[in-house]
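Obj.: predict assembly geometry.
Materials: sequence records (below).
Method: joint structure prediction, all chains together.
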Amino acid sequence: MKHKEVDTAKPMTVREKIDYQNEIEERVLGAMRKPTPLYWVGLGISLLMVLIGAISWTHQIRIGMGVAGINNPVGWGVYITDFVFWVGIAHSGTLISAILFLFRAKFRSRFNRSAEAMTVFAVLTAGLFPLIHLGRVWFAYWLFPYPNQRLLWVNFRSPLIWDVFAVSTYLTVSAIFFYVGMIPDLAIVRRFKKGFAKRIYSVLSLGWTGTFKEWQHYNQLYKYLAALATPLVISVHSVVSWDFAMSVIPGWHTTIFAPYFVAGAIFSGCAMVITLVVPMRKMFKLEKIITVDDFDKLAQILLFTSLIVGYAYIVEYTIAFWSGNVFEESQFIYRVVGEYKWFYYLMFFCNVILPLTLFSNRLRRNISYLFIVSIFVNIGMWFERFNIIVMSLAHDFDPYAWGFYMPSLVEFGITLGSFGWFFTWFLIFAKTLPIISITELKEEVA
Amino acid sequence: MKEEFRFEDREEFIKKLEEVLASGVAPEKVNAVYPHPDHHIEEIFEKYVPKSKLKFFTLLGGLSGTIGGFALTILTVLHWPMITGGKPLISIPAFIVIAFEMTILFGALASLTGFVLLSRVPNFKRILYPEDYGNEFVLQIEREDP
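Observations (raw structure tokens):
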């Protein structure tokens, strides 16, 4: 089928509008057709990774925490790195869906559904890591305040409990936001399905018809959820950063941590959106809907947050050297000359140097290049968390207490499993739910 | 008796809607179905019907979250007073974090509840017998039988 170029900037005739709207429906719902062999291969690989992760975790539960590489003095290793990494990935979903919604940025409608899905699945992944890190995972419910026989309550002054509240609130609110944004689209899917599938989508769409009464309250709800999610997203990664900043470890105990982590989170999340949407666009032939211009704007956010992150790296050093605190100074010298220096250089290259190339208009509009940069940023941001967590613990106050940490095979397995778990969810999402917000694209041409 | 008008053109629909509402038909008898969120149509309706009351749900939810968050933290530390880290029992800065998260959580849950109650979803009749109009704009007017 041949498609005409549609210029949404020019006013359209009624016929053109209807054709365009039908085309959007067809294109987006076309992605939900029978999966190709490539899809099954992708899903198979993801599930295999989940299996490896599951075997590793089972092994750790059976044998004990000793199978992980964490020990004194580095008691927080790859698990906490993964936790912070996945929470960070989640953040740009809310940036794109809520913050850009409040700012009325139009290009958001191309990415928001996949970004919101990414948020929900990333928090789902992140939420596993505190459990994995716990060791005795069957006592995980002790983290929540509940009336118990001994009348004991959790310590609300502990940043780790703040985290429990922040992350569980984030999961709930982002899941509500994801689902609510999808209700009108699910009603469109319902129209195209038959038999049992139609029943399922009817239930999921809550019997949505699109009456004035439904739209009126729906729009209000969407606005308030966006307004609530915006401060939430900033608070969540701030709270995660306070897990570190509230302690006295040199390299952790700084006031810059909250904004630094939030910027880093949005940076890594934007990169992950690009990593996910580029292949998705190609596979489902969505080039007409998600244009190079839209990617260009996303790349500008990536570049901007990269500059903030780069600035934060420099400020960290400046503060350390002007503090007059020998432990602080020693920690930051250690980062560039110590055992982990290559990780630091890798992080600096991926997060600060490489994104600078996005200043070039030509490179920013080159989708393949953008995809490669986004993968490097993902790697760089994982190492940023690793560096902050491991290097600070490996090299704190007393030279006799210094140590060295390398993740064990079990930790690698679980990390691999977390990626498999995330991609499994995302692949299932891509085939069962509308991957782009159809109603919002229709609204644009109206 | 139910009168129904279907339009492909949004402008024509809006003209008809304005006409019908201005003609003095009770606004609750007029129902519009449209395929995407449309602020202009809402504005026209809201000249005749009250604005959404959803904001009160959000406000009440948020406030109860704030109060609940402080109540949970303060009452539990007083219930079993145990000093940790030499900090005061009622450490307001730490409790603000809990209260803040609970404000957001309760605000979002209450807004969702408000939507469910005000929009009357899930609509069980429509789940069993869905009504789909595609990309059409539909105007339904219930007129009293003569």
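Conclusions so far: The two ends of chain A are 24 Å apart (CA to CA).
To do: check interface contacts against the pulldown list.
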